[in-house]
């Protein structure tokens, strides 16, 4: 299990808010993503119909998950791949590490995979003494920085080009000669090329697992997945069991949604289907292909109110459009998955007690659900976590006491009106003119903004007085 | 258009309007009466329950929902000057009470006749204000719950287009959350501040005299930030402009 950092969420958020460079980096990338997505959706008149189809495909698979997983295993095995099942992250790590050690692997190349992060694969490989080489450009950047991804599509989006130039100067041998993107990319290419050819094992994730062919599907814009999965002797795919689709046609239906929602493109540069290892007579391909199917809480989600979350195709649109993510960035969330989708998933993975802040730190504005390509009702799921947190007594005592007091009043209209009358009069004592700029117990408000000073008589008081006088308005 | 010529409307005055800005309630009564409704303000009302609902406290929310539904069941329509409270009643309550055999149908029937005021005026009553004038430039923020849960976007703009002299200016990110989020703005105040700061910057950039919105919560948040920043933008609820009372003090101005 990916352990959340020990600092409390609010401290992480505060640190992120204070980092103006971070904010600049987030705004650059999410702003572009937002604009591009809007254009891609506008240029795809059938988007809503495609969305409904995507949702229907995922719902169908989720309702028949066992059936399609068995079909996938049968067909993948028939194609020569070896299928492994992992019930949790520890088991998944153990399976992957064992395959690597059995192969006497020294260098492992890895193509970006959020599931690999979820199951803690980077640490497991390090512990096993295996050199891990991240081949996605952004992952390469954060590997040099010793960090985790802060976004599921652009793992290094929290770093500005200037910061990347510094990392490359220190981490590349020879260092890049200039700071322009072309030179820096070329420098990364040189660093990685030798690793691609010298790796014993290539590890990739999968965007889709195709049940009727047993193929795994990977999309990238850099082609690094192909170089990770083809030259090494062994190819290991790690994928969540919810990635299954019935057929290639279904994968394409979801791909059209995924790419438009993620980067605003119409197609990714590279969309590759892997179907088993190298066969006799094949020019290239790995000698062994292993597919590790990971549960890690997913079957538990099948049976509860978070089931709809299994529709997620990991496009990142929810975080690009989230006002909270755009303030604090991905690392502040403390789990593998940030943003709205992460705030639903992290409590599944890390436990609610360790992550109750995440579903709470949301304004419930609904923009994430509006852009979700498979119509996941993210605010509803976030509120479901709040309900569970309330029921399990995880919410702070002060909040419970406050809501309790408020509820006792709200259930008694006459008393409530009296309390409101007293309340607004008391509130008036704290301000002068039309505003209150300092208020005890509401420091969260007045630390950053003024509060309009109430006029002194509530609507209900004034309304009843007018009614007595016989005037209505 | 309404089935009945003079529908009986129960006005739900939200807790913020009751305490902070009563004149929004009176503006609502005025507009509803102009539109041909008979308006009453039932005394058994308190709050839509959002503080509990959004904190995950279903039990207290359900209790409050039953109490409010019972108080308003006799009306043809229930109207609120807030998209967010209306959305809680229209979507939240029926979901909460769906499993309660005694209340599921009542909550659904209640939801079906509950409306945010600008959508009620336009969609149900076919109302347009007459003879209003306000010489000012204004910009409009789409509050999230009204926009996304109730589809309120065209109605307030259509109503405002009848106010002579009012020049509307576009707001960049008009449909992006202002960072209020009920208890969010206090519980996660530093994050909320980051969000509302960007909103205030966008509002200031329009150069408009007035900022209008349909939810007092969002308005208080934005007005409070604009004031703290020393901005001159004056903030009003949309229906204050429509009722012709925006010639008086704006939010935070002494009357």
From TrEMBL, chain A:
Q: Domain named 4Fe-4S ferredoxin-type: which ranges? A: 308-376
Q: Where is the Lactate utilization protein B C-terminal domain?
A: 405-467
- List keywords of the entry alphabetically: 4Fe-4S, Electron transport, Iron, Iron-sulfur, Metal-binding, Repeat, Transport
User: From which lineage does this chain's organism come?
Assistant: Bacteria, Pseudomonadati, Pseudomonadota, Alphaproteobacteria, Rhodobacterales
Q: Which GO terms describe its biological process?
A: lactate metabolic process
Question: Protein name, please?
Answer: L-lactate dehydrogenase complex protein LldF
Q: What organism does the UniProt record list as the source? A: Paracoccus alcaliphilus
Question: InterPro entries this protein is in?
Answer: 4Fe4S_Fe-S-bd, FTHF_cligase-like_sf, Helical_ferredxn, LUD_dom, LutB/LldF, LutB_C, NagB/RpiA_transferase-like
The record's listing under Pfam families reads: Fer4_8, LUD_dom, LutB_C
Q: What's one GO MF term for it? A: 4 iron, 4 sulfur cluster binding
List each copy of the LUD domain by range.
Answer: 69-294
Automatic annotation (TrEMBL), chain B:
Which is an annotated GO molecular function term of this record?
oxidoreductase activity
| This protein's GO CC annotations | cytosol
InterPro entries on file: Cys_rich_dom
Residue ranges annotated for the Cysteine-rich domain, each copy included: 9-89, 139-222
Q: What is this protein called?
A: L-lactate dehydrogenase complex protein LldE
Origin species, per record, is Paracoccus alcaliphilus
